[in-house]
Amino acid sequence: MDCKAKLKLAFSLTIAVAISIIFVAEIQKQRKQRKRRSLSCYLNAETPPKPQQNFKRVIADNSYSQFKHLKLQDAPSSGEYVNVHPYKVEIGELLKNQNAEFVELFDGKIEMNDDEYVWVKTESQLEELAEILSKEKVFAVDTEQHSLRSFLGFTALIQISTKNKDYLVDAIALHDVMGILRPVFANPHILKVFHGADNDVLWLQRDFHIYVVNLFDTAKACDVLSKPQKSLAYLLETYCGIAKNKLLQREDWRQRPLPVEMMQYARIDAHYLLYIAYCLASELKHLPRENSSCLDDKLHFVLEASRRSNTTCLQLYTKEIEAYPGESAAASIISRNVNNQGSFQLTFNDKFPDLVRRLCAWRDIMARVHDESLRYVLSEQAITALAAKVPETEMDIYDAISTADLNSDTTNVSSFLQSPSPVVCSHFEDIHLLFQENIGEIDDLFYSILQNHLGSNGSCPLSKHNYALLSKTSLKLPNRLVSISKPNGFGPGKQVARKASRDLFVQKFSCKSPVYHNCRIYANDGRLLCYCDRKKLEWYLNRDLAKLVEDDPPAIMLLFEPKGRPEDEGNDFYIQSKRNICVGCGEGDHYLRYRIIPSCYRIHFPEHLKSHRSHDIVLLCVDCHEIAHAAAEKYKRQTATEYGIPLYIRKVIDSHQVQNATESSTDVNFEEVGVSPLQLRTAAMALLRHGPRMPANRREELTQIIAKYYGGRQITNEDLERALLVGMSPQERRRHEKKRGQALRNSRKCTQIEESSQANGVEICNKQAHGKNSVQIDIDVSSSSVANGEMPSADSNELNPDVDKVLKDDCIPISDPDLSESGKPMNRTTRTVQCSGNGNVSSSHDTKYSLLGHGPHGKQVVDYLLKEYGEDGIRQFCQRWRQVFVEALHPRFLPAGWDIMHSGRRDFGDFSVYNPANKVFTESQEREKSEDLA
C-alpha cells in the first residue's frame, strides 16, 4: 500500500472515531436530560400552576431578609424608614384628637339584595371602585386568605361594602395593581369598619403596601361592651339573625370561579358589618357611666372603642426571621418530645436533636423555595418519626412519614393532603442525604441543596417569591464574630466588641423555642375558653378530660363543664392569640420573657391576685428589655422612697463583732463597721480562687475587707468559706458545694443564730427607713435560711412613712453559717427579733430573703399596701407598674386585650389548690397531723 492510501485510511479512521465520540457524548447528554426530567420538581408538571406564580410584583418574598415597608416621598432618606409606619402622624392625630362624630355615619339598614354586588376583576373596574370609595364617608372591609399552598400566605379576596352595594375584589387577578386602593384606605377622613382587624391590617401591608387609617373594629367594641363572645358569627346571629357556616372559611379561596355558597359567605362578612357597627355604637353611647354630666363623658366608651381600633392601625407587618432556618420549630419539637409531651410515644436516640434540626432546616428551605406552607411540606409528626427511627431506605422514609401522618388523629384539612407530600417525593435525595453521618458542614450542605434547586441548572422554577434565596448570606445568619480591625491595627473596635457581647447575651438568654403555641381550649358548648401551650393541652388529653377537635394549631374541647368563663371575670386577654415577637418593636428573631410586675413584689401577693401572671409577662427583645429594666429599677427606687422601705441591705457584720462591740462600749457607731454583701462575697471568692497568685498589695486589700466583717481579727481559710456562703444565693451555694464534692444533704445545713443574745444578736439598722421606735423583724432560723445567703425580713405591719427615722444604718450581724459555739449543728428554732435604737432583740414566723437581692423590701411593701388599702391597693400598685412599662417603651405590639387597668381577679374551682376554702382545710389538716405526732 502506497503512502497516499495509508494517509487516506488514517484520515477515514480519525473521522469515524470523532463521529463515534460525538455520538456517545450526545447519548450521555440525552440520558442526563431524561434523568433530570425524571427528577424534575413537581411544580413543573402541576396543572393548573399556583396562581402566585403569575404575580409580577411581590412585596414580601420568602427570603430571610426583613420586610420593607412603604416609603413615602417626604420620609427620611436613611434606611431607618423600614420599621416606621408611613402614616404614623395621621394615626397619631386620630388618637390625640378623638371625636365621636363617626357614629352618625352608621346606617340602620339590614336588607341584602342578591343583585346588588359587583365582581371586580379588571384594572378599570378597580379604578372605578377607588373613585366610588373616595366619595364615601364609611365602608366595611373583610379579607379572605390562603395559607396552605403559600409560605407567607396571600390575600385571595377582598370584600368591600358601602351603604348601597357590595364589591368582591379578586385580589389574585388584580394582585399587581391593588395599590390603586392605597389612597382610599389611608384617607383619615374615611372610616373603615373591620371585624377583628389585627391580622387584616398586617396582611394588606404584606401583600399590597395598603395601610389602614381611621378604623372602627367591631371586635374592639365588643371588648369595651364586655360581650360574652366577640366572633363575627356571634354578632351576625345576635343582631341579624343569620347563621354562618364556619367551615367555608377553610375552603380554598384561590378557586375561580367561586362557588355560589362561597360567594354568599364572602358577601355576608362585609355586608352586615355597617349595621353591626351601628348597633354596637348605639350600645356604647347608652352604656351607663358615673358622673356623666357632659357629652364627652357620655361618649366615653364610644371613644374608647375608637381609640383601641386606631391603635391596631399602628401595627407593622414583620417577617419572623430566625437565627437559623427552622430553629424555633426544632426547639419546640425537641422540647415537647424529650419531655414525653408528644402525641405518641417513641424511643429517642442520641442523634434525635441533631436530626430534628436538620429536618426542620430542610423543611424551612424547601417551603420557601416552593412557596408552600411548612405543614404542606412535612408535618411535625413526620419529623419526629424520622428523627426517632432514622430510616435507611427510600421505602422506610416513605413509610415513616405516611404512618406518622395517619396516626396524627387530625380533623384539619392537612389530614387530606398527600403523604408524603409532592415536595418530599420529587426531592427524596435531599432527605436521604440528611441522614448521612459524614456530610461535612451542614451550612454548606444546605447551600448546595439550594443551588441544586434554584441555581443555573436547578430543577425548581424560579419566581418572584424565591429568587432572593440564591444569596448565601440570606440563608444563614452566623453567630460567630468576624474580626474587624481598626485602620491603625489595634484590633476590634468598641462597636464590634459591643455587638459580640450582645450576640452572646442573645444566644445564651433568649427563648430557645416559641413561648406562645396558641393552642385553644373550648367548652363543651363550643365557646372559646382560652389559648394555652401544648403542655396544658396534653394534660387534658392524657387524662381523657378533652377531645382533639383541630390539629394546626391544636385545639381541644373539654368533656366537662368548667367552673367559669372568661367573660365572667372580665379577662378577655386570655381568649386572644399571641405572637412570638417583641411587644415593643416587633422583633421576631429573639426575645426574652419580661415581668412587668417585678417578682420581688408579686411573689408576696395573695394567690387569687397573682395567679393571672401571664397578663404581666410579655416578650421583649434584648434592646427593649434593657430599656424596660432600667425604667423598672428607677421606679423601684421611687417606691422605696415613697414608702420609706429601703431597697437593699447595705452592710453585714459578724455577730461576734457585735457582741464584742456592745460589751466594750455602750454607744456603738455601726457606720464604722460592716461591709456590703457584694464586697464581702467578691473578696472571699477572689481570695479562695486566686489568693496565692495575687499581688501582695491586692491580697492585703481584700483581706482587710474580710477582716472588717470579722471585727479586724486574723482570718483563716475557714473564715473565707463562711464569708463566701453569707453572700451566696441558694442556687450558688448548691453549685459551690457540688464543686467541692459535698453531699447534697449537707447543703441544707443551717446558719447558726444562737439562743443566747450574748453570742448571737441579729440586728438590722436602717439609715433611710421611717418607723416607730421598734420595728418587727421576722427571722427564719431554719436549716436553709442564712446559710443559703438569705436574710430575715422586716415585717411592715409597724411601718409608718410619716414617722421620723430612729434606726442608724443598714447593718445585719451574721453568725457562723454552719455551727454553734459548741461545734454542733443547731436545731431549727423560730424567733422574732425586735430592733430598736438600742439594739434590743425579740420574735415571729419564718421568711427567707437573699442578701444580694432586694431583701425584705418586696414583702414589706406588699404587707403595707394590704394593711392600709387592702386588695385595691395591690391592684392600683400593679396598674402603676404597667403604666411605667408603657411610658418607658411605648409598645406597639401588645397582645389584644392587654390593659393597664386589668384587674387580675380570679375565681377558683371547687377542687383547685388555690381555692381559699381548700387552702384553709389543708392547713387545718396539717395542724391536726402535727398535733397528733406531738
Description:
By secondary structure, the chain is of the alpha/beta class. 42% of the residues lie in helices and 9% in strands. The protein has 35 helices and 17 strands. The strands form 5 sheets. The chain has a 6-stranded mixed β-sheet, with helices on both faces. Strands 8-7-10-9 form a 4-stranded mixed β-sheet, with helices on one face. Strands 15-14-17 form a 3-stranded antiparallel β-sheet. A hairpin with a 5-residue loop joins strand 7 (519-522) and strand 8. Helix 13 packs antiparallel against helix 14 (352-370), helix 29 packs across helix 30 (696-709) and helix 33 crosses helix 34 (871-889). The longest helix has 36 residues, at 3-38. The N and C termini lie far apart (129 Å). 35% of the residues are buried. Mean pLDDT is 75; it is low at 33-38, 291-295, 476-492, 664-671, 743-809 and 815-852.
